[in-house]
Amino acid sequence: MEEIYLSIIVPFKNQAKVLEKTIKEIVDYTNKASFKTQVIFSDTHSTDGSLDLAKKYAKAIEHFEYTEPTDNRGGKGQGIHDGIAVAKGKFVMFMDADSSTPIKEIDRLLPFINKYDIVMGSRYIKEAKPYNPNYFAGVFHGIKSVFEVLVFGHSKDYQAVGKQGRVRQFISRGGNLAFTVLLNQSYIDQRCGFKLYRKNVARLLAGLQTIYGNAVTGKDHGFGFDTEYCAIAQKYKLRTIEVPVYWFDSAATAIPNPIRDTFYSFKDIFTVQWNLLSGKYSKNKVKKNININIEEDILNWD
To answer: Could you tell me the CATH number of the domain that includes residue 94?
Structure first.
């Protein structure tokens, strides 16, 4: 059997207006790529025909997959989880359905994946930065970013095209500061929607995942899975690097209620903290639920 090098997961919900452009970019990229790719469209309870639109391109993509939710869970976290479950690539990535970071930016991340377990796209750095947890440095940087938003309207580190408004920037940088203070996470841009994993690492993260989002209320978008993945990665000292990527901040696909999203972000922080304290991310859980040997399959693969 031919080996698939890269699995591309695109989670979406009611994004038919922007999804077709993203699909065409992916088709163009995969047709030109020198390696085999798998494209996974992961629906999370769409009602606008988004999934049917994705299916139209099945013949244009050699290794085409799609997933549909089977229960009331249905946020972005569910989409990523379902995509990882069917991923066959040696490496697994996900990107946003609106192509805020276009698929071609994966070429910036791939050179690092042979040395690192996780390669995270970032909107707040100018050059690649290996992750080195440092609580006090993280808190200082977080406070500095929030102060700059209050004074200048945006963090001076922000590299994206199309600047976010002051409120969204404040919520973004304030949230990142909260992750540092409450979870000892000093990632610079934890929630950039463009990340690359080694396959076994993706399986580890999804296998321990508890945050998915809620399709019934439609309020919890499930973005907290990123917080959870970062916490698990830090617990197991997975080698991580943040790499600058192009990002266009589109107001058309912005979260409609950022205040509510902030509430759920804090809820997710305390969920992750409880999971850490109660052993839900323990090695015993890994062996029981995922059948992965942490030491052999994850930490010592080189």
So the answer is: 3.90.550.10
